[in-house]
Specification:
- With 356 residues, the protein is of the alpha/beta class.
- The protein has a single domain, classed as TIM Barrel, CATH 3.20.20.
- Helices cover 47% and strands 14% of the residues.
- The chain has 15 helices and 10 strands.
- The strands form 3 sheets. A 6-stranded parallel β-sheet has the order 3-10-9-8-7-6. The protein has a two-stranded antiparallel sheet with strand order 1-2. It has a two-stranded antiparallel ribbon with strand order 4-5.
- Helix 12 (283-289) links the parallel strand 8 and strand 9 (294-298).
- Helix 6 (135-151) packs parallel to helix 9, helix 9 packs parallel to helix 10 and helix 14 (309-322) packs parallel to helix 15 (339-353).
Length: 356
C-alpha cells in the first residue's frame, strides 16, 4: 500500500502500483485551502450528496492540475484517472456515526463528532449495531450505489480510523482512565468496535465490487503516543491483529508522531503492507524491521511552511538515507503556503529518487 490523499479528503491509503519512486511525495490540503481558492462548501450536503461532491471533486482536480502541472498531486485524480467520489466522505467519523454520535459539519473543515460520550453503564451495555438496519451505514451504501450507477464503478476508500481512535471518539478522555483501571471495560469496547469495523469494511467492499487484490485494512493509531507500549501490546495489539486477519493485508498509520516505542510490537503483525511515522522516529530501525512494507514519512505541514530550504533539504536527505524507499506525506497544508514551496518539496523527492 501507499499513502493516498484525494482532493478534499484526509489522508488514507490505496494499493501500490509496484513502480513507486524511491522518494514518492504525497501532497494534500485542508478543506480550508480549497474553500479559500475555490469557494467549496464542505458542509453536510458535501458529505451526504454524491452529486454535489462530484462537482466539487471535478473543480478540485482541475485546480490541482492547473497549479501543480507535471506532478502527481491529487493521487488517483490524475487527468485520465477515474473520479474518486467516495474517499473523504464523513472524514474520519464514519464509525462513530454508525454508533449514533451526531456529526458536526463545517464549510471549511472535515466533519467532527459531537462530544456526547458513552457513560460507564452505556459501555457495559454496548453491542455492535445491526448494520443492515443502521440508518447511517445504509445511507453510505446508497451513496455507493449512486456512484456505481453514475460512474460505472466505485473508486475510493472510507477512512475507518482504528480501534484506539474510534474508542476515544465514543468514550472521550475517560478512555485513558479506563486503560489504567478498567482493562475489561476497554476490551469490551474495543471488541465491539473491531467487530463493527470488520463487518462494515467487508460489506462496503462487496457493495463496491472491489477486486480481491485491492482489499485491505488500515488501522489509524493517531493516539498511540498517549499510551505506553506495554498498554498497546496488552490491550490494543490483539485487535490490530484481528484487523490484519480480515484480508491478510494491513496498514498502520501513526500520524507524524514518534513510533519508535511501538515498532517491535508492530513487527509481529502479519501481512503488514504499510507503516508511517514522524521524523523523530528511529527510521533506520523501522527500515530494518519492515523491509517488505511500504514505509511513509509523515512530514508536518508546519515544517514545510516554516523551515529554510537548507533545513528542508537536510530533512529529506535524512529520510532518503535512513528510510527510503518510502512515501513522503505532507498532508493538511493550509492556505497561505506558497505553491513554490510545495513544488520545492516535490522537486527534492524527484532529485533524491534519480539514479536509484
Amino acid at each position: 500500500m501507499v499513502s493516498y490523499i484525494a482532493p478534499g479528503a484526509p489522508a488514507t491509503r490505496r494499493p501500490a502500483g509496484g513502480d513507486e519512486a524511491y522518494m514518492r511525495p504525497e501532497i494534500g490540503f485542508t478543506p480550508a485551502w480549497y474553500r479559500r481558492h475555490l469557494g467549496i462548501d464542505f458542509g453536510e450536503k458535501f458529505h451526504g450528496d454524491p452529486a454535489c461532491r462530484r462537482q466539487a471533486v471535478v473543480k478540485m482536480r482541475s485546480e490541482l492540475k492547473r497549479r501543480f502541472a507535471g506532478t502527481a498531486i491529487g493521487g488517483l485524480n490524475g487527468p485520465e484517472a477515474p473520479l474518486d467520489i467516495l474517499t473523504g466522505v464523513h472524514g474520519a467519523c464514519t464509525l462513530a456515526a454508525i454508533y449514533g454520535l451526531p456529526l458536526v459539519y463545517a464549510e471549511n473543515n472535515w466533519p467532527n463528532v459531537a462530544h456526547r460520550y458513552l457513560t460507564d453503564a452505556q459501555v457495559a451495555r454496548l453491542d455492535p449495531p445491526d448494520l443492515g438496519r443502521n440508518e447511517f451505514f445504509c445511507g453510505l451504501l446508497e451513496q455507493v450505489d449512486w456512484i456505481k450507477q453514475r460512474e460505472g464503478h466505485v473508486e475510493g476508500y472510507i477512512n475507518w480510523q482504528g480501534i484506539l481512535n474510534n474508542a476515544h471518539r465514543l468514550r472521550g478522555e475517560e478512555l485513558f482512565a479506563d486503560l489504567a483501571t478498567e482493562p475489561e471495560r476497554c476490551r469490551h469496547l474495543f471488541g465491539c468496535i473491531c467487530e463493527t469495523m470488520t463487518a462494515a469494511i467487508r460489506l462496503l467492499h462487496e457493495r463496491q465490487g472491489l477486486p480481491a487484490g485491492r482489499r485491505f485494512v488500515t488501522a489509524s493509531n493517531c493516539l498511540v503516543n498517549m499510551i505506553s507500549p506495554e498498554t498497546y501490546a496488552d490491550l490494543l495489539f490483539p485487535f490490530d491483529l484481528k484487523l490484519a486477519g480480515i484480508y491478510g493485508c494491513l496498514g498502520i498509520h501513526n500520524c507524524a508522531w514518534n513510533a519508535s516505542p511501538y515498532l517491535e510490537t508492530y513487527s509481529r503483525l502479519p501481512g503488514l503492507g504499510y507503516i508511517d511515522m514522524g521524523l523523530g522516529s528511529d527510521l533506520a530501525k523501522a527500515k530494518r524491521l519492515f523491509p517488505e512494507a511500504r514505509r511513509a514519512l509523515m512530514y508536518t505541514p508546519m515544517d514545510l511552511a516554516s523551515k529554510s530550504s537548507a533545513a528542508l533539504q537536510a530533512d529529506f536527505e535524512k529520510i532518503a538515507g535512513d528510510f527510503a524507499p518510502c512515501d513522503v506525506v505532507i498532508a493538511d497544508i493550509e492556505a497561505g503556503v506558497p505553491d513554490a514551496r510545495i513544488l520545492e518539496a516535490v522537486a527534492l523527492c524527484r532529485r533524491l529518487s534519480e539514479g536509484r
